[in-house]
Q: What sequence folds into this?
């Protein structure tokens, strides 16, 4: 029985072997290229004859093979860090084993951007030099630059390890782009950073350029500067020496300056040279002093003429002003000199000068008063008619000392009420000098008539309304304005009288026409009395 079984087994094997002939390793597929540590996949063997005993891998190009315990047609791999080749070992029965074709998974190391040497800080366009790339792995594809802190990049066609730069005018970043194999992602080098500062611009200071000494304050402002403010400085000796001010802001305050003070700011842009702004000078004006006006006085109406003079003032004269309301209201006078003329004033007038020192408050002087005395009211009295050898008292009035001229015929020419007895018609002038020395005058005429009346008095008139001889006419009576006329009938009754007769009676009594007849009249010319009989028809 044992022999039979063995013979049977051999017979069975003989039959199988005769079917296939030998072991066939087959064809392995799945070759691919990857980057280090970022890979995975399957290698597959097909077309083999026999049984897969195991897989083998080699990392030295097939010199040494390592067995992998795997009898399937697929070989899995992942995270390879070097090129690795795979093959399968196939054995058919008693035949010698055979190996499949070899498939390799090519592994490239990751791209390495490397390191750039160069970069730095420059002032404006002064930068020039060469950047150098080292320590990179892969192929240098190109360089790139950015002027917006890496938000966008511009490609530079350059595959060499050096990149030249010059006249950079703004902050710029450079890097190189490297790729080890198309299968690997690109990598960028370290960045070469250029900080480029614009040229320092010191700017301009604005503010008040004049203040009033003592209580003053304000703020200066620096405009149009480029760079950082390192500090401020001030000088009180016209820039001969400067005192530092710890202030890095664009504003600088001042308070209660008592003398002219200069200010400036110190600016520096990055590594560029520092610069100072133009000097800003604050002039400090002394407080305004209005001064004192000399001149003035007391004058008579129309005689006030002279010149006022301003002295002892501090500042400039803005103008003058005058007032005829004792300072309640003022009228401006366009005059910036120290002298102010006045001429022929008819009323009391106040004058004041307006002065201002720099930006200090304006001030006005105490008023200089030109007192103009009012015209003295003088009255020499009414004109008078007298007869020769008649005396009359003059009735003068006024405030002050009187003087009559001419003095002839007067009892005393220095009193207001002298007795006058002129020989002929005379015009007397009364001159009065008041307490201010002002002189006013008035006249009175004393008409002297002789005692002989040579005029013609009408002894007949006919008041019938025909326009002929209707009025009783006394020739020349208008020369005796203080005359008196009296008319009587034949019985001695007064039927008409009038003072200052002007040849206007038409023979009436109380508005009623008197009968025709004879009437008597009496005419008085001062002491002269004329009596006549008059017939009226």
A:
């Amino acid at each position: 029985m044992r022999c039979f079984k063995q013979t049977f087994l051999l017979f069975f094997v003989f039959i199988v072997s005769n079917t296939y002939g030998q072991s066939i390793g087959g064809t392995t597929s799945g070759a691919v290229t990857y980057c280090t540590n970022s890979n995975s996949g399957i290698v597959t063997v097909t077309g083999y004859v026999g049984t897969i005993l195991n897989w083998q891998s080699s990392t030295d190009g097939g010199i040494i093979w390592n067995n992998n315990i795997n009898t399937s047609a697929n070989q899995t791999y992942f995270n390879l860090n070097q090129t690795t080749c795979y093959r399968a070992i196939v054995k058919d029965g008693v035949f010698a084993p055979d190996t499949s074709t070899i498939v390799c998974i090519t592994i490239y190391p990751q791209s390495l951007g490397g390191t750039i040497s160069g970069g730095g800080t420059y002032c404006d366009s002064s930068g020039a030099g060469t950047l150098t790339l080292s320590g990179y792995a892969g192929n240098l594809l190109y360089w790139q630059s950015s002027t917006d802190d890496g938000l966008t990049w511009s490609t530079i066609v350059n595959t060499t390890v050096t990149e030249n730069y010059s006249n950079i005018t703004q902050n710029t970043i450079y890097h190189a782009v490297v790729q080890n194999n198309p299968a690997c992602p690109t990598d960028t080098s370290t960045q070469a950073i250029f900080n480029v500062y614009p040229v320092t611009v010191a700017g301009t200071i604005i503010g008040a350029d004049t203040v009033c000494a003592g209580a003053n304050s304000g703020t200066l402002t620096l405009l149009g500067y480029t760079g950082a403010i390192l500090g401020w400085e001030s000088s009180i000796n016209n820039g001969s020496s400067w005192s530092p001010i710890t202030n890095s802001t664009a504003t600088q305050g001042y308070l209660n300056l008592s003398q002219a003070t200069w200010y400036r700011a110190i600016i520096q842009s990055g590594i560029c040279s520092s610069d100072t702004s133009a000097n800003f000078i604050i002039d400090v004006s002394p407080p305004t002093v209005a001064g004192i006006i000399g001149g003035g006085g007391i004058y008579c109406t129309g005689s006030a003429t002279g010149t006022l003079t301003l002295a002892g003032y501090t500042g400039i004269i803005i103008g003058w002003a005058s007032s005829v309301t004792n300072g309640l209201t003022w009228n401006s006078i366009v005059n910036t000199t120290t002298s102010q003329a006045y001429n022929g004033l008819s009323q009391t007038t106040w004058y004041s000068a307006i002065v201002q020192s720099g930006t200090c408050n304006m001030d006005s002087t105490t008023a200089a008063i030109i007192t103009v005395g009012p015209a003295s009211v003088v009255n020499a009295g009414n004109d008078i008619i007298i007869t020769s050898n008649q005396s009359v008292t003059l009735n003068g009035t006024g405030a002050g000392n009187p003087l009559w001229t001419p003095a002839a015929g007067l009892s005393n020419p220095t009193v207001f009420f002298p007795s006058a007895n002129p020989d002929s018609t005379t015009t007397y002038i009364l001159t009065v000098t008041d307490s201010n020395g002002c002189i006013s005058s008035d006249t009175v005429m004393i008409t002297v008539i002789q005692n002989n009346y040579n005029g013609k008095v009408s002894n007949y008139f006919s008041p019938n309304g025909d326009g002929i001889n209707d009025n009783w006419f006394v020739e020349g009576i208008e020369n005796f304005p203080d005359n008196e006329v009296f008319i009587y009938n034949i019985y001695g009754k007064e039927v008409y009288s009038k003072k200052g007769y002007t040849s206007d009676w038409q023979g009436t009594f109380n508005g009623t026409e008197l009968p025709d007849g004879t009437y008597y009249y009496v005419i008085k010319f001062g002491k002269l009395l004329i009596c006549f009989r008059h017939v009226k028809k």
Observations:
- The chain is about 5% helix and 45% strand.
- Residues 1-20 have pLDDT under 50 and may be disordered.
